Amino acid sequence: MTAAAETTVREAGVGRAMMGEATGVEQLKATLEMAQAAFEEGRTAAPAKRADWLEAIAAGLEWDAAALVEIAARETHLGTPRLEGELKRTIFQLLLFAAEIRRGEHYDATIDHTDPAWGMGPRPDLRRYNVPLGVVGVFGASNFPFAFSVMGGDSASALAAGCAVVHKAHDAHRELAARTAETVTAALNAAGAPSGLFALVTGRQAGEALVEHPLVKAIGFTGSTAGGRALLDRVAARPEPIPFFGELGGINAVFVTRKAWSARRKEILTGYAGSFTLGMGQFCTKPGLLFVPAGETAETGAELANALADFTPAPLLSERLHGGYADAVRRLQETEGVDVLLEGDFAASPAPTVLHSTADAVRKDPDILRQEMFGPASLVVEYGDESELARLAELLEGQLTTTLQAEEDDDVAGLAARLADISGRLLWNGWPTGVTVSYAQHHGGPYPATTSATTSVGTAAIRRFLRPVAYQSFPASRLPEPLQDGNPWGVPQRVDGVWHRPTADGNRKGISEVTAGQEGQL
Amino acid sequence: MTAAAETTVREAGVGRAMMGEATGVEQLKATLEMAQAAFEEGRTAAPAKRADWLEAIAAGLEWDAAALVEIAARETHLGTPRLEGELKRTIFQLLLFAAEIRRGEHYDATIDHTDPAWGMGPRPDLRRYNVPLGVVGVFGASNFPFAFSVMGGDSASALAAGCAVVHKAHDAHRELAARTAETVTAALNAAGAPSGLFALVTGRQAGEALVEHPLVKAIGFTGSTAGGRALLDRVAARPEPIPFFGELGGINAVFVTRKAWSARRKEILTGYAGSFTLGMGQFCTKPGLLFVPAGETAETGAELANALADFTPAPLLSERLHGGYADAVRRLQETEGVDVLLEGDFAASPAPTVLHSTADAVRKDPDILRQEMFGPASLVVEYGDESELARLAELLEGQLTTTLQAEEDDDVAGLAARLADISGRLLWNGWPTGVTVSYAQHHGGPYPATTSATTSVGTAAIRRFLRPVAYQSFPASRLPEPLQDGNPWGVPQRVDGVWHRPTADGNRKGISEVTAGQEGQL
What we know:
The structure is a homodimer of 522-residue chains.
Chain A: H1 3-18, H2 25-42, H3 47-63, H4 65-76, H5 80-103, E1 109-112, E2 126-132, E3 135-139, H6 153-161, E4 164-168, H7 174-190, E5 198-201, H8 204-212, E6 216-222, H9 225-236, E7 244-247, E8 253-256, H10 258-277, E9 289-293, H11 297-307, H12 319-333, E10 339-342, E11 353-358, H13 359-364, E12 377-383, H14 389-393, E13 399-405, H15 413-422, E14 423-428, E15 466-472, E16 493-495, E17 498-500, H16 517-520
Parallel strand pairs in A: 1-16, 3-4, 3-6, 4-5, 6-7, 8-9, 8-13, 9-12, 11-12, 13-14
Antiparallel strand pairs in A: 1-2, 2-15, 10-11, 16-17
């Protein structure tokens, strides 16, 4: 494809998206072929160069921040301060990933030299590192139009890994998607990245064709359980199966011990009210379930009403979500064993609702614990005996997070062990909304929270889009840089079982570490 | 379940397997429940303790080696020296995995301390490590009755990860499976491992029920593409999807450059003949395809006949495999564009067959390149122009290995890049049979070589059976050992982005490494 033709394809794509026009099947095919060509051109780039590309995207988003936030506020009804914070997080993520790949951690470079005395018989020279998968299809979410959308965690980690990305725009923020893609594409071009390394497509048909196309080697998805499962099943039916990294539904149960309840009831209910209504309850980590000791139902209702007295409702992300929210709340409210603790409404800007049930009721009908209400609603379940909590936890499906509100001397070891079984992140006396982007973050959890054992947030997300390749007895001059004894890129290498991390001056033999200051500047 | 009941369940299972009786659905259920209980009891064991269990299994297999090899030779027709070597490898693998988990690499322990100045906003204390998935179902292969069967790579890596294993015995070596399981169980019991941590089931019905049971959290499989795909599809249809680590078919193409052919034709053909007939060609890494320059067909045939003149055929692993082998060779032989270079036969102990085709023919019908013949047969394809090779490589499906036979100054960078796209291990002037167990090994490759981006051989195989869990703001006293600042188990920890590996004397601040000598003793 010529440069002029490429520009036409890209501009046609962005133009169509802005007009709300869906990507046709031929257009998708051309986009994927361009992405594949860009992947092949860019995949051997040194990590420092790829990091430059990520930093260029970050700078582009920073430069265009005012316009992006203005469009996002109009399309999503999320407040400007929240959107500014989300964009900051999105930019930070690109910079953190750039720093991570400059270090070269993601290569997992491993070198076994020839060893005639190896225990199972002579060992040949064998070296392994990670290479990018290829073109990745990314489906963004409506609730985080920056952080989990066009240039959110999935796109940023796939690009960091060395993949090309074709992003399926979410219908709930099409103009923002087109603008973001335009900014990203311009930044990548200016930085000299291969043309087509990132592209946007729109419409359901393009999305379905994306997961089925042979050039696509992995999918990143954030959205509903129903939508995610439908795509997962489509992926599973491909002649060549590919990984589907889906973040689907979740309830994010919170468990309050008797002692914590006695000591901090007001504080806990205030924190809970703030967390489940944050962003109008449209967080994948919203605490949708609170287990509290029985016996103070009226006081709890009054406390919640008090905590939410000054709450100003806003419209939900889309009409469709609003309808789904109202249906979900009404359905749960009408279930036997469930009543209303705090009456909300389903106005255009809905007032928060808190439902109420008991341990006895949910034991009879565990489905009460499995209903996601995507919006400002949550369920309080009263328990009698604290020792029941571990068994109640076993009634839950997989969760992104679970939270313990407990005192230092509470005996919750058994409960915590159960929570580790069913969730990806456990919090102690905190609230699950707010997901920091860092080295240790794990934003994932057993199905249906996600469809894999990976994270979609934090530096570990990069690993999803890599696969290992080993080289046996290759001449030194033909080895990829991360596997060379001379280590020209200065990446960590595990040599004959022992990790060596170069110092800043490239002294590999020093067996010391990259200094901590480098990423502290971010 | 009482200890006596457990013993009954276990002995009934082993006894039935020895009599060739299939495991019933109720028996499978009881076995899985025992495995789950054993998993829960054992999963928090310190790595040193779990390593003891692996070493106890290794010692048990060593102790019972003579009997195991005798049974294996009778059931598989594989020669005694080969089986002794395979058992040695299997024992070594257990010891290597024990050393690996003693080091604690597999926890991937990552600690982010509170950081009020973190770039996207204040960071809470967040710590992540890997925990075992739960009960793992393992399907062994017939062609490696030790290394890829009852206590082969999948079982050893799952146990090393902290999982419980329920192994579905291969019908082709039932007595060996039962004896191995008995030895393993006795060794685990003597070492004080939880009862039921390893169990054996038999029969197709138990195998199908195994992949569908909710207690099973991952599957390891080595076998045919058809069998693997059928199980994969069954797994994909589960309400809760689980990872399916399948190693399926493969061709293991070898590419000979003109210069290498001129310089080393005889040596190359001798190596090829030895490799494709090793173990009667029943290796998943058998070189099933050799690309050579056109023009010396008769000489090639004569050379191969010469190299195999002293070859003594043996029976294949099973009647069923023999039938499948004969069908596959005949089908390919009758394909247009394919003829016979070295005439073999389909006797009970079949003489090797080499088929022949050309670049033109395989371009017309790429399926010629995609027919696995599981037994002592291979296909030689003659090419005209060396520059065609990269495009010919693109006609191949995913491979476990690809091999270059080339000279130092050959220009094969483009071809090598293509081979890295389609295979998991690239060899230079070697032969793909023989897979060392080490840190850098990667025994995997794009579909249909495997169904994931993971390895089933080497220390990296352990990671397949783990998932991350993060702890946010947890009190120090309640953190799992690998995440404690005091690092009581002395595992590697990535702290605020920087890796720290304790020295042998537990000096964490030293930022130095475990000494290399420890595993050199294996």
